From TrEMBL:
InterPro entries: Amidase_dom (IPR023631), AS_sf (IPR036928), TPR-like_helical_dom_sf (IPR011990), TPR_rpt (IPR019734). The lineage of its organism: Eukaryota, Viridiplantae, Streptophyta, Embryophyta, Tracheophyta. Coiled coil: none annotated. This is Amidase domain-containing protein. SMART domains: TPR (SM00028). The keyword Protease does not apply. It comes from the Eukaryota. It comes from Prunus armeniaca. Keywords: TPR repeat. TPR repeats lie at residues 533-566, 567-600.
């Protein structure tokens, strides 16, 4: 029945070529419309990922300003956001009256009613003049440190768009970093404010545990949770901190003692010129600071927190003190799991929520956890607080790197992220398990990634810490600017005879167990001849004895770049990387050593040990 119309169309087309033009334009129009729709869909998806706020957006206006001559409210004209955690007396986490809190999960939102009250912390901010402009995206159920959320999308890190923003309070960090609000709130349990603050290049503050009211905030882990603050401006942090902590405006001044945890900076791949030296130079011309001190923090904790001994892995008990922090982070995660189970097991079993892979693994581990060793976990927490009190008292500030690694790329494979988690949580466990206050301060960039340092002060001296940040911040940023524009000058002296003599002196010092002197001689040899793999490899051996694992890794990498068959360099780099908790890379080094020397028993045992750790 269609033959005749088709023949008519063909006849018309053949007799009138313009018909082809009409058909071509029609097809082109269809293609353009389809492409336009496709781009709109992609644009909407990108907006969902970029937008840190959840719908529906809302404004909570501040309480009325007092009439003159009363003083203006301290937070007047400032805007803030809150993580999607109900700040209310219902079972959700930062709840706002009249709104359902999602807790990062659509199933949570679907099984809970709108909040009937607004949390005290939010009310306090409104009373002091601030305006709340909405809730932000977070990791599902406050479990995770990447900031990725399979349901609502991942807020895009303004500093590094192809990398994670950090979590769990990812949306709040992004909103501040993007300049959308003046400050934001999140819940810091295992680093959930400090980590995204570091990755997004903003200030992040974890107050002392229990110092900010948690009334209206449903707990993830009540022994670890505290309300945290993000901002770009130290003066805003100072004002908001005073409101939430209900601090007195006047306090007795005391000299500040800065203590650098040198062993923890070994975990970081950022040169100390951009971290330790920046802070050291920043206080040189400031009054009220004692000369800085340096310490091996892990060694101190190993000696003063005896409860950790039972949590060190049998396979690594022969290793260095860095594993003490890994044990501490293990205790922190066990405590979080047990308390999460107590708080939310009933809901998890009844609602059977659809969770992303990472969140699902963590929730399952929490529900399967037992309460048999809870007293032991609390004992470690008590010992940790006592150890920090003895070290810091009321005038000490511990200086550490906030994180060990730059932010991961989005959608990183699970094995890589597992190693990243171990190294990151090892550092964040210090304040979480001691209850101390900690502030993350951005200090520029390294290889395009934001970097930061953290100040930790003892529990309940939050005002002292906030005053210190306000006092030091501009000086730190000035030194950051100077460091970012300075370049070391290469030494071109290549006197090989002298360098060999210095190498032999270094060897003699090494045999005499004078590790620092050995490093000195090897360094002088390297300055004279930068093309000798042996000099770098020998200095790496001395660094390993001193516990300077980052420097040892760098020296071995340099030695390998000069000599691809240097077995000792692979062995020593593998040892350094294992000590830095980089198990996958360490295993690769030992495997490479076995390729070059198949009968190497030490490499064979190390590779098997690492395979067990990763398995």
């Amino acid at each position: 029945m269609w033959k005749q119309p088709l023949q008519v169309v063909k006849a018309n087309v053949s007799s009138n070529p313009r018909t082809w033009i009409v058909i071509g334009l029609s097809v082109a129009g269809i293609v353009i419309v389809a492409e336009t729709q496709r781009r709109k869909r992609r644009s909407r998806a990108q907006i969902m990922l970029r937008e840190p706020f959840l719908e529906p957006r809302f404004d909570l206006l501040p309480f009325p300003q007092p009439p003159p001559p009363a003083a203006r409210q301290p937070l007047a004209s400032l805007t803030f956001a809150i993580s999607d955690m109900s700040f209310s007396l219902s079972l959700s986490l930062f709840d706002v009256k009249g709104y359902v809190t999602g807790f990062g999960s659509p199933d949570w939102a679907g099984t809970h009613e709108a909040a009937t009250k607004t949390a005290l912390v939010v009310t306090a901010l409104l009373k002091n003049g601030a305006t709340c402009v909405g809730k932000t995206v977070m990791d599902e159920l406050n479990f995770g440190i990447t900031g990725e959320n399979v349901h609502y999308g991942t807020p895009v890190n303004p500093q590094l768009q192809s990398h994670i923003p950090g979590g769990s309070s990812s949306g709040s960090a992004v909103a501040v970093a993007a300049g959308l609000v003046d400050f934001a709130l999140g819940i810091d349990t295992t680093g959930c404010v400090r980590i995204p603050a570091s990755f997004c290049g903003v200030i992040g503050f974890r107050p002392s545990h229990g110092a900010v009211s948690m009334i209206g905030v449903s707990p993830n882990s009540q022994s670890l949770d505290t309300v945290g603050i993000f901002t770009r401006d130290p003066s805003i942090l100072h004002h908001v901190g005073h409101v939430l902590l209900q601090l007195k405006s006047v306090e007795t001044k005391r000299a500040r003692r800065l203590i650098f945890a040198d062993d923890l900076f070994q975990l970081s791949k950022v040169p100390t010129e951009k971290t330790v030296q920046v802070v050291t130079k920043a206080i040189e011309h400031l009054s009220g600071y004692q000369p800085p001190k340096h310490m091996n923090f892990c060694q101190y904790i190993a000696s003063n927190v005896p409860g950790l001994k039972g949590f060190r892995e049998e396979s690594v008990k022969h290793q260095n003190e860095i594993f003490t922090l890994k044990a501490l982070s293990s205790v922190m995660l066990l405590l979080q799991r047990c308390e999460f189970k107590t708080n939310h097991e009933e809901w998890v079993k009844s609602a059977k929520p659809r969770l992303g892979p990472d969140a699902s693994d963590r929730v399952r581990a929490a529900i399967d956890s037992t309460h048999e060793n809870m007293k032991t976990l609390y004992k470690v927490r008590t010992e940790m607080r006592a150890a920090l009190q003895s070290l810091l008292k009321d005038d000490g500030i511990l200086v550490i790197p906030t994180v060990a690694d730059p932010p991961l790329k989005l959608n990183t494979k699970k094995r890589q992220s597992s190693e990243f988690n171990d190294r990151t949580l090892a550092l964040s466990s210090i304040a979480s398990m001691s209850g101390c206050c900690q502030v993350t301060i951005p200090v520029g960039k390294h290889k395009e990634s934001p970097i930061s340092i953290s100040f930790i002060a003892f529990h309940s001296v939050d005002k002292f810490l906030l005053d210190t940040v306000l006092d030091m911040y501009s000086s730190i940023q000035e030194k950051v600017s100077i460091a970012s524009h300075s370049w070391p000058l290469p030494d071109t002296n290549d006197n090989l005879d002298v360098s060999e003599l210095l190498k032999e002196k270094g060897n003699a010092a090494f045999k005499g167990r004078q590790w620092n002197k050995a490093v000195k001689y090897y360094t002088e040899a390297i300055n004279l001849n930068m093309m000798s793999a042996t000099y770098y490899c020998n200095r790496a051996a001395a660094y390993l004895k001193l516990g300077c694992f980052q420097q040892a890794e760098e020296d071995c990498s340099k030695a390998i770049s000069l000599d691809k068959k240097n077995v000792k360099a692979y062995m020593r780099r593998g040892t350094a990387r294992e000590s830095l908790l980089c198990y996958k890379d360490a295993a690769q080094d030992f495997k490479h050593a076995l390729v070059l020397e198949p009968q190497n028993k030490v490499a064979n045992l190390a590779e098997k040990r690492l395979r067990e750790l990763m398995g």
